[in-house]
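Methods, example record. To illustrate the input and output format used throughout this study, we show the complete record for Glucose-methanol-choline oxidoreductase C-terminal domain-containing protein. The sequence lines were provided to the predictor; the line carrying structure tokens was produced by it.
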Amino acid sequence: MIKTGLQWFATQTGLGASSHLETGGFARSNDTVEHPNIQFHFLPSTVHDDGRTVGKCHAFQVHVGNMRTQSRGCIKLSSKDPRRHPIIDPNYMDHDDDWKEFRTVRIDFDYDQFSAIPGLFRKCVQLSRELFAQKSFDPFRGDELAPGKDCKSDADIDNFVKYASASAYHPSGTCKMGPSSDKMAVVNPENMAVYGTENLKVVDASIMPSIVSGNLNAP
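The corresponding predicted structure is encoded as:
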């Protein structure tokens, strides 16, 4: 890791010069969806735990994510001390629609054998399999290792998702803006001021009243 960092710092070349997420795309889960609600990231390698661990084979991988989740979490204060971290409960996959619309998975492809490693939510398992079943992948595709060819039913996929799901760290809506009549709104949309306070405004993605189909955080 240090060698990679030094090479990039000195020459702007090598593994550190790439984000390794250079190909991606968006899709709609069905024709009734107005905005794309599924995102794909393609990687020319296998990684686990956000890259902290790498796979043991030469492979490529796709990460798939739910961009318009209906589940809602919460944030609570852990202490009166503002330096203490709050208690964050993302409450992932709590809404039934998330299970109905999305069966996503992160799939890896060995250059010689097709392999897969756990990833995210339901519908996208089907889309990922359809994508890599295309003729253009014939020279590279082998056997599916995970979730595996025997993982077909909703129950099978749901069990896999419960085990393999992870966050991509793009939260929003924790300080929703809206009219004072909205009990869930804490920010005035007219001036970005926090209701019930003075000289306190919020102007980042936390004021979004609903989730957008895009990544909100930058490196």
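Annotations derived from this record:
The CA atoms of residues 131 and 137 lie 9 Å apart.
The mean pLDDT is 80.
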